[in-house]
Specification:
InterPro entries: Cytidine_deaminase-like, FdhD, MobA-like_NTP_Trfase, Molybde_CF_guanTrfase, Nucleotide-diphossugar_trans. The chain has helices at about 35-45, 75-90, 110-115, 135-145, 150-155, 175-185, 235-245, 280-290, 305, 320-330, 335-340, 365-380, 395-405, 420-425, and strands at about 5-10, 30, 30-35, 50, 65, 95-100, 100-105, 120, 125-130, 160, 170, 190-200, 205-215, 215-220, 225-230, 260-265, 265-270, 345-350, 355-360, 385-390, 410, 430-435, 440-445. It is of the alpha/beta class and about 450 residues long.
């Protein structure tokens, strides 16, 4: 990327905040204004930060405020044009832009977007890195009457860069800000996502904030031996590792050493020492864990292996909301084991019209999906000609299994974890969750179907 001293940071704050009701840049999050959060985020990336806030905003102490260019009232592109012109005439190579109302801004944004640009964060197009040399082109674009951010991205050929960490939330309403504020009390246990609710009766989609439990891989090592990688919420991990060792019968209470925690890639490594008498059982269990479970995780020995890259699904779902509702309505009638026992998960493959084509059941949600994928293969059915519907919590491994099977859309009746969302985005999987008789949450929608 370009040298940090040659990148100008630009906070885009020229909106009218009509949906928010008040000036959102002055709204507080964690005791500080959204504007100050945006400035602080860019200051870690850039040598200088400017505020692009139209012509009628009071000056911000210590920050150069730029009026829109080439004229007022052009929305965020008018502010970006002003920043690019300023950068071009003051020796900066590029502009790193961030809107005042998208938080949290990803750390290392400039490195993520790379240089030379232009490049934007996928689904958050105003978080971008723009060569200063684009200033004349953007001004010409605006003078020609083009004002949408999409039109500019297409005109300048900006790359759309995926980001699989905590996604920024567009704070378009006080409810969104309140949800983000409340989410801070949960620490690393949850993320706040701006999702959409699809109403089956009306077909309308509305935005809603939702807390999503964080799910990450935790690689557990005892006495230097990689024992297992478990998917877990990263809170109280010392308790988790100690309890895991006790539950596995590896050691008695009080005989487990201190748990050392280390971040590694997208997860944690937890290390602890067990007494010498635990070693034979530890070695025996470590050798046999590979074939214990269908969840696809327990035999893996590292965080990197647990987060192996996914090859994205390369087909587009051809489904309407009414078909999803139809499949939900008919699924129960196909669940013979579940109806008889009340203790079995089901995985169904549905046509684009919502017909249940195949259904498999098992006490394990992973097993039910594996059975369904196997049935599709053995019967010679194309996995890209329908969607999967699961009676299960939407976890990371179910998303990965669906993507690897080439099924382009997954619908689950329970909520997703943070890692499930990230992996669905990586695999370009259309994902709906909390599917009920009346509605469903649109989690990822890479093809903008809903």
């Amino acid at each position: 990327m370009a040298d940090r001293n040659n990148i100008l940071g630009a906070v885009l704050a020229g909106g009218r905040s009509s949906r928010f009701g008040t000036d959102k840049s002055e709204a507080l999050w964690k005791g500080r204004s959204l504007l100050r959060h945006a400035i602080a985020s860019l200051e870690t990336e850039c040598d200088e930060v400017v505020l692009c806030a139209g012509n009628d905003r009071a000056p911000e102490p210590g920050i150069v405020t730029l009026p829109d260019r080439p004229e007022p009232g052009l929305g965020p592109l008018g502010g970006l044009c002003a920043a690019l012109s300023h950068a071009l005439h003051h020796g900066f190579d590029a502009v790193l832009s961030a809107p005042v109302d998208a938080h949290p801004v990803p750390e290392g944004l400039a490195d993520l977007l790379g240089n030379p640009g232009p490049a934007v964060l996928a689904d958050h197009w105003l978080l971008g890195l723009w060569p200063a040399a684009l200033a004349p082109q953007l001004e010409k674009h605006l003078r020609a009457g083009h004002r949408s951010v999409r039109s500019w991205i297409e005109a300048c050929g900006a790359r759309r860069v995926d980001f699989f960490g905590q996604p920024p939330v567009n704070l378009n309403s006080p409810d969104m800000l309140a949800a983000l504020e409340d989410g801070q009390t949960l620490g690393e246990g949850a993320e706040i996502h701006a999702l959409r609710v699809m109403d089956f009766a009306t077909g309308q989609v509305s935005e809603t904030p939702r807390s999503v439990p964080v799910e990450i891989p935790v690689a557990i090592e005892f006495n230097g031996i990689g024992y297992a990688v478990m998917m877990a919420t990263p809170t109280d991990l010392e308790d988790f590792v100690t309890g895991f060792a006790l539950a596995e019968g590896l050691a008695q209470s009080g005989a487990i050493g201190e748990v050392d925690l280390h971040r590694s890639g997208g997860g944690w490594v937890a290390r602890a020492n067990l007494p010498p008498e635990s070693l034979p059982r530890l070695l025996e269990r470590a050798r046999t864990r590979v074939s214990e479970s269908s969840c696809g995780i327990c035999g893996i020995e590292s965080v990197a292996a647990a987060l192996a890259p996914l090859i994205p699904v390369d087909c587009v779902p051809e489904v309407k909301p009414a078909a999803i509702h139809r499949a939900l309505s008919h699924m129960r009638g196909h669940q013979r084991l579940g109806t008889a026992t009340g203790a079995a998960h089901a995985a169904a493959f549905c046509s684009w019209d919502g017909d249940i084509l195949l259904l498999r059941e098992d006490v394990g949600r992973h097993n039910a999906l594996d059975k369904l994928i196997g049935a599709l293969s053995r019967q010679g059915m194309r996995s890209d000609r329908g969607f999967a519907l699961l009676t299960a919590r939407c976890s990371q491994e179910l998303v990965e299994k669906t993507v690897r099977a080439g099924i382009p859309m997954l619908v689950t009746i329970s909520a997703p974890s943070s890692l499930a969302i990230a992996r669905a985005r990586e695999g370009r999987l259309t994902l709906l969750a909390l599917a009920r008789d009346d509605s469903a949450l649109v989690i990822t929608d890479p093809h903008r179907l809903f």
